[in-house]
Amino acid sequence: MFVPFENLPDESRVWVYTGSRAFTEKETEVITDLLQSFCEQWSAHGQPLQTSFQIRENQFVIMAVNEDHHRPSGCSIDSSVGIMRKIEAATGIDLLDRSRVPFILNQKTELIPLPHLKIQFQQQIVKGTTLTFQTLAATKKDLENWKLPSENTWLAKYLPKPAFTH
Length: 166
Description:
Blueprint: E1 13-18, H1 25-41, E2 43-44, E3 47-48, E4 51-56, E5 60-65, H2 74-91, E6 100-105, E7 108-113, H3 117-122, E8 131-133, E9 147-149
Antiparallel strand pairs: 1-5, 2-3, 4-5, 6-7, 8-9
Helix pairs in contact: 1-2
């Protein structure tokens, strides 16, 4: 059953999907309609899940489930991936590719392939202070810090190490 995102408890489980590009207004309408219908009927072992979604920055889809109401099963989580595939087919936007990391560069969201991260940091194209998104959030509360400097995330391991001086 769908509930407004803001009505879900902070401990609700979330999944963040990054679009391969920003959504147009029409695509946002299509995505919203598909997700609304999906959330209305999303269930686990015949039990309705208390669910919601959010679209952020015109490029991110966040799915949420209140696990205190009823826990999602493996099959129900798989069905949420299925709706992402349906959205991909309807819009042509890849939502399941986790091999690109979003950053805010030149006031817009840019996706950088994982294999290029180290060189991007070394060349100072991306810095420790460059904002990234909390795409690995596990709970709704984690989304309160939606944008973070990359040095405060898992990306810190890609930052160049300062030379030691004696």
